[in-house]
Amino acid sequence: MTLEPITPDRAVKLYLQDRENELAHSTHKSHRSRLSYFTDWCEQEGIENLNTITGRQLYEYRIWRRNDGDLVPVSEKGQMVTLRVFIRWAESIEAVEQDLHTKVQIPSLAHNEGVDDAILDVEQARSILDYLQTFEYASRRHVVFALLWHTMCRRSSVRALDVTDYNPGDQYLEVIHRPDTGTPLKNQGRGERYIALSEQMCELLDDWIETTRDDVVDDAGRRPLIATAQGRIHQTTIQNYVYCLTRPCELAGDCPHDRDVETCEATEWQHPSKCPSSVSPHAVRRGAITHALSTGTPQQVVSDRANVSTAVLDKHYDARSKREKMESRREFVDSV
Question: Is 292 domain-assigned?
């Protein structure tokens, strides 16, 4: 096979263009970010033609990236997995030697290494929902947090919802992948599904739409369910809502970390994540999933509702102890 000369930077640009319609927006953005380090390293090392790169150089890049970025093992693994995917693609356009991707070494992780163990427990979730129900009923924060907890959705799915995706009569939401108009789902078409809603959740959505929601359209002419005066809510805003609501001082008014609430930087809109007790939307999702499993909801039901495989459910979302899992299975054993 005759290789065709190409610069690393040009190859990465072609790769990103080729994968743009295949990858979720967040994944594509991640690949672009990770591969930018690779092109920077190639420039630093004077590698102007990707044809010449070797397995040893790929190993040297791995060590450089680990040290330069001070990466933990799970981050290093993510970087190298993306690089291997790129190198394999480069083989298909005759930019590197065949099977070079097999020389990209991927670090192995210890059991449960890299698993995010942050979780919002059910008692705190209920306290937040009670507070919102009482003091901020049908507000944007109320609707966003209630949807995250009740549906177990990712924030990208909550953001993607339109008013027309809500069926109040049959009490469900339809989650749809619409990448062409700015609301892709993490799992693309596989993330599309119907989500049943409780009567209480429907009542909240009805009141939100009727009395509080800004009657606007987004840049694509769609009517976002979670709207702001400017259009569709941003994912960062959803994240900030959760960080703010899970700060202890937000509800209780005092700080368990002996900080002065008046001067603490975590009370600023831009920095709520700097509170040691605040958690992300992922922790809300994880808490809701764990609560559902703990109360006896079958794993497959939770898997379908939350759009996550049972394998990933076990590893990343189910925070129950082995004993708690055993107790959840007891009712099925007793009936045998």
Answer: no
